[in-house]
Predict the 3D structure of the following.
Amino acid sequence: MKLKAILIAAMSVFALMQVACAETSKVPAAKASKYKEGRDYTVISGVKGINKPQVIEFFSYTCPHCYNMEGFLHNWLPKKSSNIEFVRIPVFMSQVPHLTQGYYTAEVLGVLDKVHMDIFNQWHRDKQVIRTKRDLYPIFEKAGISSADFEKAYNSFAVASKVQYAKKMVKDFKITSFPRLIVNQKYEVKYAVKNYEHLENLLSELPLEKAK
């Protein structure tokens, strides 16, 4: 009787194992990414990355390619998932430090949405070089900011801290050209100029995919 009981128990265990294997086989395999390292993005060495979906654009107001990129971003930003954080970082250059400080001055004063494209347009569309911070006065005045309030914010600790942060990020990510698009602080996006449909899909999907 003992042998019979052992056989019955063994058969029961075997049956359970067969069911478990059958259930496991029903679990779909992870979907392969359509984005490939080396073709669509590169992995940035020496950085840890973050676990949340994020896109950083490193840009300069002096850069015509960055100016052209604004049209794409204007269309993409309203479409992107609310889970994807978008961050602009103006690259600090010693020849035009007032442009980086001007960007963060506008951010601190809450008028970045009014000032950002005006700075770009004056430099590229209107061909009027913004040589000093005083050249920013009319742009900020148009946004309702007096020269006195501009100067106060421009020279504030808050703006100085943001400029230092921008400098650190440029150094950490070894930014030597722009625009540069970084996903989740780990992956640099590769894209072809004017192939914005592919870029839109890439920026909409890769941050979410790499955050998992």
Q: What stands out?
A: The longest helix spans residues 2-25.
